[in-house]
Structure formats: structure tokens, C-alpha cells
Amino acid sequence: MVRSLSRSLWFWPWLWFCIWIFYTTPTVSWPWTKFVPLPLIQQNTQWNHDAINRVDVFYGANCTGNVFPGATRPFGMVKLGVDVINHQWGNSYSGYAPGGVITGLSMMHESGTGGAPQYGVVAQLPFTSEFNPEIEMNLTRSQSDTGKVGYYAVNTTEGVDIELAAGERFGILKYNFEKGVDAKVLVNVSHHLTAQERPWWTQRFVKGIIEGTESGYGGYVTLKGGWGNQDPWTLYFCGNFSVPAIQVTRYKGNAVQPGYYSVGSSRRGDSFGLVFDFGGEVSEVVSHVGISFISREQACSNINHEQDFNSLVLETQRIWNEEVFDKFEVVSSDPRVVDQFYTNLYGAHLIPSNRTGENPNPGWKPDQVYYDDFFTIWDTFRCLNPLHNIVSRKRGSEIVQALTNIYLNEGWTPDGRSANQNGRTQGGSNSDIVMADAFVKHIPDVDWEQAYAAMKQNAEVQPPYWYDSFAPDASTKQGRGALPDWLQYGYITRNYTRSVSRTMEYAYDDFALSQVAKGLGLSDDHAKYLRRSSQWQNIWNKDAQADGYDYKGFIQPRDADGSFNYEDYDPMSCGGCYWGNDEYEGKPVEYGFAVPHDIAKLIQLVGSSETFAKRIDDLYPLHGKKIADVGNEPSFLTPFLYNFVNEQWKSVELVRYIMQHDFHFGVKSLPGNSDGGAMQAWVIFSLIGIYPIAGTTTYLIASPFVNHLKLHLENGAVFEVSASGLSSDNIYVQSLKINGEKWNKNWVDHDTLFGPNGGSMEFVLGSSQVVWETGPPPPSFGHLD
Ligand SMILES: *[C@@H]1O[C@H](CO)[C@@H](O)[C@H](O)[C@H]1NC(C)=O
Ligand SMILES: *[C@@H]1O[C@H](CO)[C@@H](O)[C@H](O)[C@H]1NC(C)=O
Ligand SMILES: *[C@@H]1O[C@H](CO)[C@@H](O)[C@H](O)[C@H]1NC(C)=O
Ligand SMILES: *[C@@H]1O[C@H](CO)[C@@H](O)[C@H](O)[C@H]1NC(C)=O
Ligand SMILES: *[C@@H]1O[C@H](CO)[C@@H](O)[C@H](O)[C@H]1NC(C)=O
Ligand SMILES: *[C@@H]1O[C@H](CO)[C@@H](O)[C@H](O)[C@H]1NC(C)=O
Ligand SMILES: *[C@@H]1O[C@H](CO)[C@@H](O)[C@H](O)[C@H]1NC(C)=O
Questions:
Q1: Taking a C-beta distance cutoff of 8 angstroms, is the pair 238, 289 a contact?
Q2: Are 150 and 27 members of one domain?
Q3: Which of 212, 278, 499, 692 suits a disulfide with 183, CB 3.0-4.6 Å?
Q4: Where does 431-554 have alpha helices with state H?
Q5: 163/40 same-domain check
Q6: Distance, CA 215 to ligand 5 centroid (Å)?
Q7: Same-domain pairing of 449 and 470
Q8: CA 27–ligand 6 middle distance (angstroms)
Q9: What is the Å distance from ligand 7's center to 570 Cα?
Q10: What is the number of alpha carbons within 13 Å of residue 100 lying toward its C-beta?
Q11: C-alpha distance from residue 349 to each of 326, 346, 562, 665, 680 (Å)
């Protein structure tokens, strides 16, 4: 099998191109020698080690994907990039847009979120014209921005070119001024991202201070608002310039005067700051800027002045290689698949942000592990967190520790969170599933008693009321709104918004509790939560029908008296699909599949395996209509569910179809928001050919897009996938070996692949739609064992 793969590779010209790149790219010291040649690979095949140059940082960066394209480290607090005003297309929530004008280079951004933009604070803007406080100062590009991992560049028509590099909690901004222009830098303390088309969720400037010298400045800025309706929060900053300014000017509103100190507040207009004038003789100004949520001193001490621009770029790239890229080795006969792999891998490591030592809220100790920017767990729990639990168990652990610490210090785990505040829960308390996923995969260094206490609180305690004009009925800040209904009726009645999707999610969340309880030896809790995890069946109406479909039975809103509510009900529609509707961002027909813990029961309810498969067929244009939204999370798992009726070849075909039709290259590329990397994680699993069922140890098997892949696990073992015979027609599994043994199930569990010995999957692919899986279907957990 393997021999023929490598023989055929011999003739492919792209391979020689890669080998050429391999030998000619003069770069950072990658640890080539670390990789011992594998028995599965013949000497003619070459692994690709060129990830840094293959990542397209602009992938999904348009206003659909909202991916942050600027300079950052994996999960870095600093995300240094451009903030653009783009009246034509609107802004990406990451600050970036391909057109428009640049109004600031700021230190913090989110990546890939929906909702509304957050941060865009602590900005500089180099310029060469007269300073005019009455307009928003801005730069026009002379060409498209360029960027690669850890580096971003903007060339302008205004005689200044910009390069950006990011450290963990500081960044370096490098300006190259044309000969003879007047070199100036604006530090606009009030600068921040706004939600022009959603003013109710826009951030607002509250107040700030800046104090400067000729060669630097420090201060703070306070903002409020955003998607989580944040209360005022403060960020401190510290900036240094490589050359002293010859003049410093302060401005507030429209008033400009010499001076080094400026105070601003929203009451007195929201534009204030300092202008540093370096004169006409200076060609290069380099600025180190540090930030901190704790103090101005910490913002200064977060800067590493030893590091110059180039060494910072290389250090950041080294960290990306070490933590992310070097763990993978990928071979594909299609070079675009390798690009796609590394680009998506990059996008799956941007948020949440590691903010250990940077939580200013009461009770936090500097060494307590802390992450922010969960935006949102509703998006990420399904496959992004499970990806982290494979690629970096240390991250996976720190994320669960952070969630636990947020519960311990602040009272509740978040679902959405930024600017150090919980805010906006779309469905359930899905941090429960993140925790269970880590638990069943033996993620180390978590205090599981405490983590489980956080989960229990979500499951048992109604969160305090928090007014939300979009859903005034029950809290959307944290925990599970409308919990009393769940406890009393066993479903959420239509007295509450999102009653159908909340019912489905609370069931899955309770399943997560049952798994942790089981592992902790809490057998009563195990039984109790497993029973509650079946409560989604309470909203299954066996008589519900959809126009044009000959099968019956769907989930449906239900009143407290037990009757099903037919008012406005159509299983193929979620109305506005928003905060005030019965279902949030997913139709009843889509959300009906959202019981990955008990698909066996679902198959029983729909009547037969054939109907179950037909129902999936009907959701996608491949066999039916475009009903499921592949660009949104509720349907992430659905294409793989044919495995439960042992028709794995149909999962393979549908995943191929979606990858081909909905995921592209370049700025547009993603079919929806990246959602903090959730979308990219879906692509990564699809390319590898497995997909996790979050909160369980199960992976459903599809078929790889890569010819060969190795993942170096943190425990020193290797996980390896090979696909013999792969071509555009040969996508179907003909046979499979796992760890050298013939495998007859279309699923596999975590420890078999990622345990102490690693694991291997050797696929033989072909063009026939073979039912090769003679073993039992993937497990369902809806009963006590
Ligand atoms: C960015 O998105 C807008 C709106 O969807 C689209 O019209 C525009 O062509 C996109 N730009 C690029 C460079 O793809
Ligand atoms: C950008 O600056 C120009 C002056 O250079 C000004 O006319 C224009 O209004 C500014 N654009 C924005 C979006 O603020
Ligand atoms: C400073 O930023 C604020 C808020 O983003 C903006 O309204 C103002 O125009 C900016 N001032 C200048 C001089 O660019
Ligand atoms: C863009 O700016 C950089 C840095 O000043 C410079 O090296 C590069 O040549 C510029 N590119 C173009 C096309 O002018
Ligand atoms: C430059 O940075 C150092 C420490 O990082 C700080 O103490 C100093 O005040 C800064 N310089 C100016 C002029 O602000
Ligand atoms: C997160 O940040 C803290 C503080 O800087 C650091 O000690 C820790 O190693 C970081 N975590 C990872 C996984 O890099
Ligand atoms: C709303 O709740 C009340 C009890 O609090 C119940 O009597 C009523 O039937 C509920 N309405 C619906 C639509 O379920």
C-alpha cells in the first residue's frame, strides 16, 4: 500500500518543488533533525516543513469570516493590526477590511467573531500631513496589505510604510518615513472599534489619561459596551520611541496645544491624545508598546526592550512552529491541501487569549491561570476545544483551569466572554462540554472537584437575572436561563425565548455532567444527569410534519401543560433564528440532530435507519435542498452522522461536497464567521478524516484529504494517518487498519489514537461506495450501563 503511494509520488513535479523549497528556504532554525524517518514513508517522499510560508493570514479575513490577519502569537493577548473604516463593505469585526482607510494600528482584537467588534484599543497612527483634530486622521494604502505569521505590513500613499510585530503582551510598530517628509505619530487614546450597523452593541469610550515625554508615553483607557454589554473596563499602556520627538502636542476635541499630558472623558468629546513630531530628518521610528489590565507599571514591564523588530518576528514564528506547526507533518499530492491545512491550523490557535496574570477583577492572584475572549464557547466546544485537547494538552488544560478559576473568583463559568466579563449565552452552559471533553481525554493538571462544582452550579442554580433587551425573559449573561422550567417540566416551555434550542442544549450539557460524575465515582449524579440528558425527547412530537416531506416527527416548542404549540411552527424554519425566537441559529430539523450522545434513540424515534439517512440527505443540496447551514455550528456534526447507520461512505461524500462547495481560498474562503477558529477546526478534522463527538472519547471516521500526516503528540508518541490510493475519484474507504490491525468500525476512541503509544490509521481508498464497516455503530449513551 505505502510502497505504491511513494512510487506514484516520485513522478509528481510539485514534490520536487517542495523539496526545492525545503533545501533553499533560509529561515529560522527549525528542528529538522527531530524527525526520524518513519517506516511508513519511503525516502522519495518529502514532508513539508514550510508552514510559516504556507499560512495565508488573510484567509477568512473579509467581513464574512472576521478572522484577524495581523501579528500575534498562539492565543496571544496582543493582536496587533490595522483598524479600517470601510464605508463600502463595512468592517470586519477584527478591525480589518481590504479597502477603506486605516485610522489606527491597535494592540488588541478578537478573531473571527460574530456579534459585534471588541477592542481595537491602544492605537498609534503614523502620518506626514498637518494634524487636524477635527477629522479622523487616516492613511490610504498604496497596495494591499501583506502579512505572514507574526508579521504585518502596510504601505501607504502618504510617505510612510508600516511594519508590525507582536510579542505576548507587547508589540513593535516600525515606521519607515520617506526622505524629507515630516515624520509624526498620533497616539489617539480614544480610538476603538465600533459597531456601525449595530449601535446597540457598540463599544464606547468612557475616559482616559496619557502622559508623555519626548521618547514615550503611558496611561490608560476605559471603555464600555460591546456584544456582552460590558461594564466599564480599563486597559493600561506604555509606549517608547526609538528616537526622541522634537515636539509633543496634546489635543482634546478640536483644541491643540503644546504639552505632554492629556486627560479625556466622554463628557468632553471622545477624541484626545498626543502627537509626537519627529521632524523631517528621521527615516525610521520604532515603537515598543506594552499593555496590561493591571497597571501602567505592568504594561511597561510587559515590554521586552532587548528584542528588536526582526528578532521579535523570528521569536514569534519560532513559538508558532514549536507549539503548533512543527507538531504536524503533512504530505499531499495537491499542494493547496497543505496550504489549507496549515492556514486552518493557524486560524484555530488565535483565541481564547492567554491572560494569566492579567485579570484585574477582585480575588484573582497573579499566578492563577486565566484566559479571556471566549467568543464563544457555543461555537468552539464542538470541535475547536477537542482539537486543542489533541494538539496541545497544556492549552486544553489551561483553558479548563481558566474556566474553573473564573467560576471560583467570579461565580460562574462563561459561555461568551471578553474584556474580563462574562456575557451572552446563546444556548446552554456549554463550558460543561468543554470540561467533560477534557475530563474523558485525561487532560492533566485540572482540579476536577472544582471543575465539577462549576458544572453542577450551571445545572442546578438559576443564574441571577440580567436584563437583555433581545431576550428579557431569562438571563443570557451566564449559566442556564430558564433553568426552573428544565427542572420542573423537563424541557423549556414557550414561556421563554429559544425554548427548543435551549432544551436540546441543556440535555447535551447534562450529558457532560453525567460523564464527569461517572469518572469521579459519583454514581447518583451519573444516573441523575444521564436521565436528564434524555429530556430532549420531551419536545419530540411524533406527529409533527413538514410540508413536502413524507416522514413525521420533529422537535417542537411545547407548553407547560404538555401540549405542543403549533403557532408559527414549521420544522424547516427557525423564524428569525435569533434571541427572541424558538430556536437560535438553527432550524428545528437541524437542532433535532444535536443529540450526539444519543443518536441511537434518535434513530429509534425517526423509525428506521433508512429514514434517518434520508433525513440527512434532505438537508444538503448534494441529495436534497439547502436546509442545513454548513457555515454555522449547530450542523457541524450532522454530515458525519451517516456513520451511525453504517453508511460511512455517505459521510465521506457529503463532507467532500461541503469542503468543495463551501470552503474556498483567500479572504472570502469561509462560509460564515470563523467563530474564534471553530470553522477552521472543522476543516482540520475533515482534512485528517476524523471528527470528534465533544464530551466523549469517540471520533467518527470519514476519509483523509491528505496522503499522509503525522502528529507529534506531547507525550512523545506519534499519531499517523496514511491514505493509499487517494485521488479526486478515490475518496471512499475500501479498508482500514488502525494500529496495524484490520478495523471494521467506522469510529475509534481517543486512547486508541492519542494515548501513550499514539496511533496509526492506514486507509485504503478507492472509487467504490463500499460498506466496509461490519462492526457495531458508534456508541450512544442514553442509558445506564
Ligand atoms: C469582501 O466582502 C464583500 C462583501 O461580501 C465583497 O463584496 C468583496 O468583494 C470582498 N472582498 C474581497 C477582496 O473578497
Ligand atoms: C481621511 O482623511 C481625509 C483627509 O486626509 C479626510 O478628508 C477624510 O474624511 C478622512 N476619512 C475618514 C473616513 O475619516
Ligand atoms: C480618535 O478616535 C476617535 C474614536 O475612534 C475618533 O472619533 C477620532 O476622530 C479620532 N481622532 C483623530 C484625531 O483621529
Ligand atoms: C513597502 O514598504 C516596505 C518597508 O518600507 C518596503 O521595503 C517595500 O519595498 C515597500 N513595497 C513597495 C511595493 O513599495
Ligand atoms: C520606556 O519604557 C520604560 C520601561 O519599559 C519606562 O520606564 C519608560 O518610562 C519609558 N520611556 C518613556 C519616555 O516613557
Ligand atoms: C500563558 O501565559 C502564562 C503567563 O505569561 C505563561 O506562564 C504560560 O506558559 C502561558 N501558557 C502557555 C500554554 O503558553
Ligand atoms: C407559563 O408558565 C405558567 C406557570 O408559571 C404556566 O401556567 C403557563 O402555562 C406557561 N405558559 C406556557 C405557554 O407554557
A1: yes
A2: yes
A3: 278
A4: 431-440, 448-460, 483-488, 499-519, 523-532
A5: yes
A6: 8
A7: no
A8: 26
A9: 22
A10: 22
A11: 14, 6, 45, 19, 9
Helices (H), 533-675: 588-591, 599-606, 609-617, 648-662
Best residue for ligand 7 mutational test, from 561, 563, 565, 566 (most atoms within 8 Å of Cβ): 561
How much is the pLDDT for 268? 66
Q: Which ligand is nearest to the CA of 86?
A: 2
CA of 93 to the centre of ligand 2 (A): 21
CB of residue 98 inside a 6 A radius of ligand 1: yes
Residue 619 neighbours by CB distance under 10 Å: 24
The predicted model scores a pTM of 0.93
Ligand 3 nearest atom to the CA of residue 192, by list position: 5
Residues 6 or more apart in contact with residue 62 via CB below 8 angstroms:
89, 92, 97, 98, 667, 668, 669
Say if residue 460 is in the same domain as residue 497. Answer: no
Would you give the DSSP letter of residue 710?
A: E
Distance of CA 101 from the midpoint of ligand 2 (Å):
8
Around ligand 4, the residues with Cβ closer than 6 Å are: 143, 155, 161, 176
Same domain, 302 and 435: no
- CB neighbours (10 Å) of residue 182? 17
Residue 92: nearest ligand to its CA? 1
Strands (E), 552-652: 552-555
All three cell numbers of 739, joined, read: 494500529
Number of separate domains in the chain = 3
Divide the 785 residues of the chain into consecutive groups of 10 and give the mean pLDDT of each group.
31 35 32 36 50 94 90 98 85 91 98 95 98 96 97 98 98 97 97 92 96 97 96 98 97 92 80 96 98 98 98 97 96 93 97 98 97 98 98 97 98 98 97 98 98 98 95 94 98 96 98 98 98 98 96 97 90 95 97 98 98 98 96 96 98 97 81 95 98 98 98 97 98 98 98 97 98 97 71
Let me know if residue 81 belongs to a domain.
yes
Task: Pick the last residue of a domain from 300, 321, 342.
Answer: 321
Q: What is the pLDDT of residue 269?
A: 67
What residue owns the CA closest to ligand 4's atom 3? 161
How far apart, in whole angstroms, are the C-alpha atoms of residue 767 and residue 770?
9
Q: Do 291 and 385 lie in a common domain?
A: no
The reply to whether 766 falls in a domain is no
Residue 420 lies in a domain: yes
Mark whether 175 and 113 lie in a shared domain: yes
Q: Ligand 3: distance of its center to the CA of 190 in Å?
A: 6
**Per-residue confidence (pLDDT) for residue 28, from 0 to 100:** 32
Q: Would you call the peptide bond into 157 cis, given omega within 30 degrees of 0 as the criterion?
A: no
User: Closest Cα to atom 1, ligand 4: which residue?
Assistant: 155
**What element of type H or E holds 578?**
none
Q: What is the pLDDT of residue 138?
A: 97
Rounded Cα gap, residues 782 and 595, in angstroms: 10
Q: What Å distances lie between residue 529 and 175, 455, 481, 499, 697, CA to CA?
A: 58, 11, 18, 20, 18
Atom of ligand 7 nearest to the CA of 565: 13
Domain identity same for 19 and 96:
yes
The CATH number given to whatever domain includes residue 136 is 2.70.98.10
pLDDT computed for residue 668 by the predictor: 66
Question: E strands of 379-463, at which residues?
Answer: 417-418, 421-422
- For the CA of 302, the nearest ligand: 5
Helix, strand, or coil (residue 703): coil
Domain encompassing residue 565: 466-475+488-540+556-591
Residue 776 lies in a domain: no
Residue 63 Cα, ligand 1 centroid: separation in angstroms?
7
Asked if residue 216 has its Cβ within 6 Å of ligand 5, the reply is yes
Look up cell 477558529; give the residue: 677
* Last-in-domain residue among 321, 347, 371: 321
pLDDT attached to residue 666 = 66
